[in-house]
Specification:
Blueprint: E1 3-5, H1 16-20, E2 26-28, E3 33-35, E4 55-57, H2 67-76, H3 92-95
Antiparallel strand pairs: 1-4, 2-3
Length: 107
């Protein structure tokens, strides 16, 4: 069971989780991070590091976020690894807590 980044990360893209990951399983897109399910070792370290609570164990992903399980797997095949923390987007705090952001995902 891998961990999954969900909709709350879109347009926030805080990278606190990247610093703590022991296997570099995060992949970076233009305005979202994903976890490569083939690399994730289920260590749980990233979960408490996410300031927007966007990371869940695959079995615990909320029902309205289940599509992100497949989306993480798909995008992880195409996006490059991110192995160190970066500054979040300038407007990241404005997007915290905003719902219905899937339409804003940039591939």
């Amino acid at each position: 069971m891998a961990f999954v980044v969900t909709e709350a990360c879109i347009k926030c893209k805080y990278t606190d989780c990247v610093d703590i990951c022991p296997v570099d399983c995060f992949r970076e897109g233009p305005n979202f991070l994903v976890i490569d399910p083939d690399e994730c070792i289920d260590c749980t370290l990233c979960v408490p590091e996410c300031p927007v609570e966007a990371i869940f164990a695959a079995d615990d992903v909320p029902d309205n976020q289940k599509a992100f399980i497949a989306l993480n797997a798909e995008l992880a095949k195409h996006w490059p690894a991110i192995i160190e923390r970066k500054a979040p987007p300038d407007d990241a705090d404005e997007w915290k807590g905003v719902g219905d952001k899937l339409r804003l995902l940039q591939r």
